[in-house]
Amino acid sequence: MASTFAVLADRSRREILDLLRERERPVGDLVEKLTLTQPTVSKHLKVLREAGLVEVRTDAQRRWYRLSPGPLAEVDAWLAPYRRMWEKSLDALERRLDEIEGD
Amino acid sequence: MASTFAVLADRSRREILDLLRERERPVGDLVEKLTLTQPTVSKHLKVLREAGLVEVRTDAQRRWYRLSPGPLAEVDAWLAPYRRMWEKSLDALERRLDEIEGD
DNA sequence: CGCTTATATGCCGATCGAGCTATATTGCCG
DNA sequence: CGGCAATATAGCTCGATCGGCATATAAGCG
Predict the structure, then answer these.
(1) Would B54 disulfide with which of A24, B22, B48, B59, CB 3.0-4.6 Å?
(2) Structure pTM?
């Protein structure tokens, strides 16, 4: 998981993931949506591939990319022990709102 | 949330968060645990502060740092729409295991 | 006030990463 | 085979960032 955060730190890559969440797409499709050149998009896709966040399927000259959410599950797992902390904060917030409401 | 991933991309900062998850700590305490110099740790704390991931409390010369999990909740929210995807993958994995078991 | 403790800030060197342009690769089609 | 379409790779530049050392700031103590 070490580097998954670094991969996700880039806005363009997060946008790519968001697009792939809808459906599998060829590179040209992504280039069209993002305001980046084709080589730049290809480079991001390489990073995402090596991080295991996407997978490719070849269809003639086209490469169809799709999401591979495994590493995201690891991020989710890293987050898990923190989850109870903000849940606690939210609980406190709720209690305060209840108090105000009670006035 | 934009930069929260960038902040989390650094291993040292994640270690600091992990330490603060246990309890509030002064800077010197963190320096002791990490293999970093005091100025470097202070710099990471500044980044974490500006990202809203930690808060400080002053006690004489000591500064006690504690976790402030708000931005992590935002990361969790970003992750949410992806969650069903790996849950689906896990389901598929389970079904396959069931098949093998069924042999 | 001078000394010590605790932390922050300034500055530097080295490295990394994002984006670009140009070019290579791969596969289709006539 | 020649040419077009789709994607990947190479090489470059610029700006950001990590880490360290030296130094500044702040607070307590005698």
Answers:
(1) B48
(2) 0.86
Report the residue of chain B nearest A85, measured CA to CA.
Answer: B69
Q: Give the pLDDT of residue B93.
A: 62
Strands A62-67 and A54-59: antiparallel
Helices (H), chain A: 4-8, 11-22, 27-33, 38-50, 70-102
Q: Is the dihedral of CA A20, A21, A22, A24 positive or negative?
A: positive
A83 vs B1 pLDDT, higher one: A83
Is B69:A82 a contact under the CB 8 Å cutoff? yes
Q: Residue B18 and residue B75: Cα distance in Å, rounded?
A: 16
Is B1 in CB contact (< 8 Å) with chain A? no
